[in-house]
Inverse folding.
């Protein structure tokens, strides 16, 4: 085990760089914080490259970290790395998975979801609803942003989340015969008019502007959720939950 | 019109106190920020006690503020009052409505919802789903917290939100013959086993612990939303949306 007890250590600076999207992309890695996320990451083979643990933390026996290399740090370094107010003092450097091919029948496509809390909650909701794969288009917040990771509560490690061009994905899904449903406040049909099928793709969009028009023009159908009261719209994560659970046809 | 151009003015200190729950309760008022919330507040008669507007802001003609008193402030005071990063420079002091009696058939009851973003999103969702009244029990974050107000996007002004004792409310609703559905991860039936009726009350609970057991024992039935993937639970606002829209039976 290595020991790093100074926040000036170059390794600490290197880890801290993983708070930025640029460094995450350059290195193909990301940093998770807290027992729950670290445990979820460790369940996936070859996901965790390195564990970073406070000297004040005792790792409970239930956590099997195998031969993953571990560095012990002190309070000062914890403070430097933490992105939560009361850090649990445990971190993991993880490898960004590459998903060249996915074997999926249900998809959630995201067009420019910008709030990290919303993106994380959407990922958690898609996981709960049994969606097979998520495709995140351009203009969305980085999926490995620490707030996205926290809000998703480990769902990053449960289903493939692919960054890709939504136009290309729609073309591919169409050629596979998968119906693609957009969501729109202005045009479209009430979502309950669609008969749910196990294989489908749903697109949800930006918090303020919804899905870009060019994408809406490429879908099989566009759906809306009726508003019965006086609010103007639903939060995008809430809307996603309503639609995905409707499609489960419980 | 009054002018206040120093953040040291005692009136500014008084307004700033409305950032605290204690002062909001003592005064029976609360502060909203931004064009959208101020406009929604002004639509309700006698809701706005006072407008506070930056000298850099021009109030568009669509906003009818009638005879509401207005104070002009400068950048320095805006900075002092603002709770958003980029303030729109418009604020309103509002009166906390008193709802002794409500004329409602559908209710949402909240047991110790603690995250302001969640509480606001739940209020917005209940509004969208056409819920008639919300009852907020003890242990929840203050409904007039600025983050709750922002997340609810004006729904505070669309339906009665009552602070009350949930045990008393359940007793009252039961004696009115209204079915009360709790939500629980462990016990209960799949929500789709309940036949939706226009008159009902749904209870949702704390982010970590759910609804307290003593309340679950008082309900007509307790419902759960099945989890199909590997996430442990749904976000409480997302779960609320799924259930309220199921009960709309669209």
């Amino acid at each position: 085990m290595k020991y790093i007890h100074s926040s000036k250590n170059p390794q600490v600076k290197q880890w801290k760089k993983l708070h930025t999207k640029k460094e995450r992309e350059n290195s193909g890695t990301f940093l998770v914080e807290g027992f729950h996320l670290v445990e979820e990451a460790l369940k996936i083979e070859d996901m965790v490259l390195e564990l970073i643990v406070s000297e004040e933390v005792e790792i409970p026996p239930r956590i099997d970290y195998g031969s993953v290399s571990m560095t012990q740090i002190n309070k000062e370094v914890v403070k430097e790395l933490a992105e939560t107010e009361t850090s649990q003092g445990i971190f993991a450097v993880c490898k960004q998975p590459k998903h060249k091919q996915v074997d999926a029948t249900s998809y959630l496509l995201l067009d420019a979801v910008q709030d990290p809390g919303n993106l994380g909650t959407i990922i958690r909701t898609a996981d709960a609803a049994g969606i097979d794969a998520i495709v995140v288009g351009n203009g969305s917040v980085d999926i490995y942003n620490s707030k996205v990771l926290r809000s998703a509560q480990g769902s990053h490690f449960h289903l493939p989340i692919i960054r890709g061009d939504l136009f290309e994905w729609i073309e591919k899904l169409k050629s596979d015969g998968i119906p693609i449903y957009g969501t729109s406040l202005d045009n479209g049909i009430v979502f309950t008019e669609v008969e749910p099928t196990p294989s489908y793709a749903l697109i949800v969009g930006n918090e303020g502007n919804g899905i870009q028009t060019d994408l809406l023009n490429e879908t099989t159908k566009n759906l809306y959720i009726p508003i019965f009261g006086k609010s103007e719209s639903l939060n995008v994560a809430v809307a996603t939950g309503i639609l995905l659970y409707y499609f489960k046809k419980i």
Notes: Chain A touches chain B at residues 117, 121, 124-131, 151, 153-155, 158-159, 190-192, 225-235, 237-242, 245-246, 248, 250 (CB under 8 Å).
